[in-house]
Amino acid sequence: MNISIICVGKLKEKYLKQGIDEYVKRLSGYAKVEIIEVPDEKAPENLSDQEMEQVKQKEGERILAKISDDTYVIALAIEGKMKSSEELAESLDKLATYGKSKMAFVIGGSLGLSKQVMQRADEALSFSKMTFPHQLMRLILLEQVYRAFRINRGEPYHK
User: Fold this and answer.
1) Where does S-adenosyl-L-methionine bind (predicted)?
2) Residue spans per domain, the chain
3) Tens digit of each residue's pLDDT (9 = 90 or more) over 82-128
4) How far apart are CA 158 and CA 146, in angstroms?
């Protein structure tokens, strides 16, 4: 399985890079994982609703340019469906079973994802009603994908 994590913005925090590198390494036994960063759109603090939509649209165009037609897309969004670790594992297992070998998880920028990205997504996944920094979300996502593979293989994992 080929898994892409498409994210807006560069990761600067060393401690997050180390954690992400660790999970990418752990996942290498299960899947090919690629992290794709697209530039975030520079924007002032106080944006109008229209300006926010323009920022999300520009970031969305960059995201969509990285997604091929045969990729199953899971957008991370607060309004998405919440799943347990076991339910995520089951979803990934079903996708693999039905020949979806290319998968992309999409993490938006600080303003979220554009309507176009949400329309392209095959599903929307929420990790919580809380808002997390999108850089930290990469680490949380990778840990859960790793956990899903462990669950699906019947290997022990921390409960």
Assistant:
1) 76, 108, 127-132
2) 2-42+50-152
3) 999 999 999 999 998 888 889 999 999 989 999 999 999 999 999 99
4) 11
Inter-residue contact 48 to 103 (CB < 8 Å): no
* Binding site members for S-adenosyl-L-methionine: 76, 108, 127-132
Q: Does domain 2-42+50-152 have CATH number 3.40.50.2300?
A: no
| Backbone φ and ψ of 84, nearest 5° | -80, 170
Which amino acid is it at 147?
R
Q: What is the pTM of this model?
A: 0.94
Binding residues: 76, 108, 127-132
Token pair of 74 as six digits: 């899971």
Residues ≥6 apart with Cβ < 8 Å to 141: 5, 76, 105, 107, 127
